[in-house]
Amino acid sequence: MAQKVTLDEAECIGCQSCIELCPDVFGFDDETEKAYVYEQYTGEEECIEDAAAACPVDCIEVEEE
Ligand code: SF4
């Protein structure tokens, strides 16, 4: 089952934890200093869940499709 990731950039504080844990899925925008979803449907379920759990402001959402 595919997982769709959404990241609420308005809530993101730019700590980069998600990027460290899951660099194939999350990227960092140097201009806004916030993370964004770099690539969907990578099949990196485990690290997406780790990143969502590690986010200090809980702004990463994972939906099963
Ligand atoms: S872990 Fe959360 S707050 Fe930190 S950069 Fe990623 S989305 Fe933003």
Structure description:
- It is a single chain.
- The chain has 65 residues and is of the alpha+beta class.
- The protein has one domain (3-64): 2-Layer Sandwich (Alpha-Beta Plaits).
- The chain is built from 2 helices and 4 strands, in the order βαββαβ.
- The protein has helices spanning 17-21, 45-54; strands spanning 3-7, 26-29, 34-37, 60-64.
- Strands 1-4 form a two-stranded antiparallel sheet. Strands 2-3 form a two-stranded antiparallel ribbon.
- Strand 2 and strand 3 (34-37) form a beta hairpin.
- The longest helix has 10 residues, at 45-54.
- It is globular and about 35 Å long.
- The model has no long low-confidence stretch (mean pLDDT 95).
- The structure holds iron/sulfur cluster (SF4).
- Iron/sulfur cluster binds next to helix 1.
